[in-house]
Design brief:
- The chain has 314 residues and is of the alpha+beta class.
- It has a domain of 200 residues: Brix domain (Rossmann fold), CATH 3.40.50.
- The chain is 25% helix and 27% strand.
- The protein is built from six helices and twelve strands.
- The longest helix has 26 residues.
Length: 314
């Protein structure tokens, strides 16, 4: 029986690398690995180059051809993703049986969580659109059109995979001028995935809200779904599990309004205002008439209580 080998760092840099690979409370932004199969060219090569341009700087590219079949034996692919510290990958290949083949997938605990094989029916590269492009590190808005994205579990996972693929750093707030790029994904009746990319232009409208125009800048592609490998429900749930420290616990009697202000509600018991210790001010002292009235009231209450006790005894 072979024991699990525990890797111990020999250098300071190696220790930092191993610590970075351990589970983190707040995970860093995921990198994506791009690699080619035995044969890769044409639209697949162009598509992967455009994806690298959109994903920069969170990319790592392997230029050599790799004799890998991810659906048959993913061991080599899992090793390369672990070595390059990438949680996402894009694998391009072209064969007679599956021309213009693009595989998108993601890794969980150094094993493939799920992957989808897409066939490129039609592709329009970014260089084919003679328009102004967007800058690097611009986070796109993702729009998924059509009701089919919620009809099957495979399409739901594919939508989630596309979000992970084009997602960049998480932001807490955005401004209107910072929204420059939008990518649309449409699922048609014949299960064709249509991808389009647009640049957002803000024009004057005579009002506070600007008029929005979309200019197609590429890339644009029509994909067909070929093969899929999705994780089981238990493994997928485990991959999405959040640590207890990151869970937002609901606090009682605390609410937030639309402007982000915090409001708290305090519940107090019944208060006896007469016993509250206040500052002794001459103006608040009782007059002699009020004192006599209080003494007379107490005497009356005592006499009534005595009579009631005698009556109960008889």
């Amino acid at each position: 029986m072979s024991l699990l080998r525990i890797r111990k760092p020999k250098t300071r840099k190696g220790k930092k690398v191993l610590l970075a690979r351990e589970p983190q409370l707040i995970e860093p932004t995921r990198n994506m690995l791009f690699l080619d199969g035995r044969k890769c060219g044409g639209d697949v090569k162009t598509c992967m180059k455009d994806m690298q341009q959109l994903k920069k700087p969170l990319v790592k590219v392997l230029n050599r051809n790799n004799d890998i079949n991810p659906f048959d034996d993913p061991t080599s692919l899992e090793f390369l993703t672990m070595k390059n510290d990438c949680a996402l990958f894009a694998f391009g290949s072209t064969t007679k049986k599956r021309p213009n083949n693009l595989i998108l997938g993601r890794i969980f605990e150094n094993e493939i969580l799920d992957m989808v094989e897409l066939g490129i029916k039609r592709y329009g590269a970014m260089a084919d659109f003679k328009t102004d492009k967007i800058g690097t590190c611009v986070k796109p808005c993702l729009v998924f059109n059509g009701p089919k994205w919620n009809q099957t579990e495979e399409l739901r996972r594919l939508r989630n995979l596309l979000i992970d693929t084009f997602q960049k750093d998480k932001v807490d707030a955005i401004r209107l001028q910072g929204i420059e790029h939008v990518m649309g994904f449409t699922c048609t009746d014949d299960m064709t995935i249509i991808m389009r990319s647009y640049k957002i232009l803000l024009k004057k409208s005579g009002q506070k809200t600007p008029r929005i125009e979309l200019v197609e800048i590429g890339p644009g592609a029509d994909f067909s779904i070929r093969r899929t490998k999705i994780a089981s429900e238990d493994l997928y749930k485990q991959a999405r599990k959040q640590p207890k420290e990151m869970r937002v616990t609901k606090k009682k009697n605390i609410t937030r309004d639309e402007l982000g202000n915090t409001h708290g509600r305090v519940h107090l018991g019944k208060q006896n205002v007469g016993k509250i210790q206040t500052r002794r001010v001459k103006g608040l002292k009782k007059t002699p008439e009020e004192k006599r009235a209080d003494r007379q009231k107490k005497k009356t209450l005592l006499k009534a209580a005595a009579k009631e006790a005698v009556a109960n005894a008889v």
